[in-house]
Amino acid sequence: MAREVTHEAQGPTVLDESDMGDDDQIYVCRCGLSDDGALCDGSHNATADEAESVVYKYANDDADGERRAIDEIVYEEE
Ligand code: FES
What we know:
Keywords: 2Fe-2S, Iron, Iron-sulfur, Metal-binding
GO molecular function: 2 iron, 2 sulfur cluster binding; metal ion binding
Number of strands: 3
Shape: globular
Distance between the termini: 29 Å
Bound molecules: FE2/S2 (inorganic) cluster
Radius of gyration: 15 Å
Region (Disordered): 1-20
Oligomer: single chain
């Protein structure tokens, strides 16, 4: 139950009261699949059936994208 996501932002997102939901809470995305930047948009529901010991990659880092299991992450030599 892990997933590889690609982040392209090079700076922080500032959150304020306009980001609060109806319950006056701010929900920060931790799954990496939200289409709403740093804010949770419910896309994490796509991860509900992920297996515990598998690493996944979602096409375009989108919950609607094709989901693939990753065998191994290979890092490029520098
Ligand atoms: S935690 Fe990522 S969309 Fe909810």
